[in-house]
Design a protein that fits this description.
11 strands, 2 domains, 7-stranded mixed sheet, single chain, 366 residues, Rossmann fold, binds 6-O-phosphono-beta-D-fructofuranose, alpha/beta, elongated
Amino acid sequence: MKIGVLTGGGDAPGLNAVVRAIVKSAICEYGSEIVGILNGFGGLLSPPSVRPLSLHDVRGLVARGGTVLGTTLRANPFAIEGKDRSKEVLDSVRWLGLDGLVVIGGQGSLTIAHRFSEKGLKVVGVPKTIDNELAATSVSFGFNTAVATASDAIDKLQTTAESHHRVMFIEVMGRSTGWIALASGISGGADVILIPEIPYRIERIVEKIHERKLQGREYTIVVVAEGAFEEGGSPSYMGEDERKPPEDRRLIGAAERVARAVGAATGLDWRVTVLGHLQRGGVPTPHDRILATRFGAGAVRAVQEKAFGKMVAIDGAQMHLVPLAEAISKVKRVSPESELVWTARALGISLGAQVAANGSHASLDG
Ligand code: F6P
């Protein structure tokens, strides 16, 4: 078989490990040929931009961040500068003689993959998102590394916050979900965690700061998910993005917004750290390398078994395939009633709101 592989959307730690697993398992287990498509779906527009991938090409890739295939956020062949260029993609796949195409991507790229699948393209998806918001898989690769990076940053802020008696705000990614904030906040020993699923109230954050002061703690660590917002308010978007469709809106300034309000209410010294794309870079954790490797090998197996129109997913410990249509249909959000939120509260972490969590739902892994 001749199999194409592309990486779409934002990068995530573990992308290269998936590419490596695809190449190695395709060649070693099935004697297949792998073609790397460059820069996401853009590489299948006319003329195609591809490179063959050998075992030599993927040597050492398991630990390397980024994607050797390149990626782009602006290559939706169904709408490039207002034009539908999807036919070019179908023609390229035919011209390249691909028997299957593995698309490694998040919600956006998998939605494009699904549309192509409906047009007859033989596609298998691999879930990639540091945000961990795809409901069809209990966890996606990249999330664990992002949490490790954020948790490490919180550790570092603890000591400087304590030394300077400051309120330190750290903004982490996650788009409309609070998985990275909640996981890294618990892991890093944050005092307040603000997530989009639980709109906050400034008074609650101030209350927590005062409570700590009474206990002799002159500093506070507040983890803010980039999509967090005040009760009755809305997320903090880049100015002109307010009018764009939700998936195209860029988030900016959530932590600064809350920090200014808390600073004004308390008169305390505050600082903001925005972790940004550091969460997407660097060496993937062993957890993400293993998951990425399983997803890569699983995707090749799905192509060999002609299980097209599906995405590899993990359910607890078990790998399985879910229809792409199902994979893109539901966003996984943190449930305020979850065991994870309950755990945070049980440890005295403020969620910036009154939450009656009863711990009835499962935790991080869905
Ligand atoms: O979806 C992954 C993610 O890193 C989000 O957490 C974040 O909001 C977004 O991508 C940032 O995208 P960009 O690379 O366009 O700044």
